[in-house]
Amino acid sequence: MRFAFRLALILICLSSVLAQAADSVTLTVVTDRPDALYRLREEARFRVSAWKDGQPVTTGEFDYSLTLDGGRPIRSGKGQFGAAPSEVKGKLDAPGILRLTVSFQAEGQPVTALAAAAYSPEKIRPAAREPKGFRGFWAKKKKALAAIPVDAKLIESPQHSSAEATVWKFSLANIAGSRVYGWLGVPTRPGRYPGILTVPWAGVYPTPVDWASGWAKKGYVAVGISAHDYDVDLPEERYEALDAGPLKGWPHIGRESRETSYFLRMFLSCVRAIDYIASRPEWDRKHLIVNGSSQGGGLSLVAAGLDARVTAIAANVPALCDHLGFTQGRPNGWPDLVPNGDSRIARASAYFDAANFARHIRCPAIVGVGLIDTACPATTVYAAYNSLRGPKQIVVSPLMGHSMSQEYSDLMSRWIPAQAAK
Questions:
Q1: How many domains does the structure of the chain reveal?
Q2: Would the pLDDT of 8 be above 60?
Q3: What is the pLDDT of residues 295-304, one digit of tens each?
């Protein structure tokens, strides 16, 4: 889990979905429309091709399955390779993502490729309703956090500082005697600057110092935090031991209750980090942006939904969305909190569903989504995105999995400075 989500954030921009069993064999699946957007009941045509040693495969068969974004099965069957790309057709009569999975055996190994068609995705809604006690629960938890002194402990980090920015390692007091660990970067030139908080993707790993130093060099009071109650720069083997020991299966720890969920402390860590940015004399008292990918994308939504001091968010392929997707035949969002039929966990999960926080967000937002993302499926992302109530923009990458597109990266590099200048 640790490395899967770290590797998922490599910047890529794909023009086709390609699977490779060996250097000589490839399989591609694409939709007949580059944007992969369709109206309800409109037929989508998926084109399937394979190559071996640079030559098209013209004989043999492949298996295929059509599903509701990897959830409810729609149809499965077999197709034949030929001189021209083979076609698999399908459609949806309700808003959703039609996902095609194709596989065949090549040189004794299975090769699989995906493509997807989006049907009126702007109409996808969250599977779960917001609990009546949602706002009261979080107001109570924020009040309890506010009663705890921040107790900031800082250690300057000369090896990470520069002529443009000074960097510190820090920790802050959090609930239940825990701490928030992170990095702080502040421009060396005196003045007041916009704030930016980078929230972590999933895993157990050293927190990247450039989440603070990189943004500070660009003129921000910048903070990057860890998801866990452990220091940000332990030896790698220490994180491996934590991942295999006390943090094994951490996303599901305490999921039976809203009072014990592992995400309770993590969500409040975001509020505490915002508290700290707001306390810094260098902050401009106006701009506070939250940025993250995957789990960090979900936490960006959570932070803005919890704290009105957030003025803009950038949430790429957000996790933690639509935990009850399975009730609509769709997949659940990462980390698949709710086993089918477990009503107790289902009730608790609603308090940690980023789609419920999105309903309370009115600040500007950008969101990235990959239509063939199997970690944070597109329907879960749209469920949250469509709930946002402020100015918003979504960057759709039809043939991207759990990653960050170049288009989103380029937009973010322009959009965040623009938000900080308003």
A1: 2
A2: no
A3: 999 999 999 9
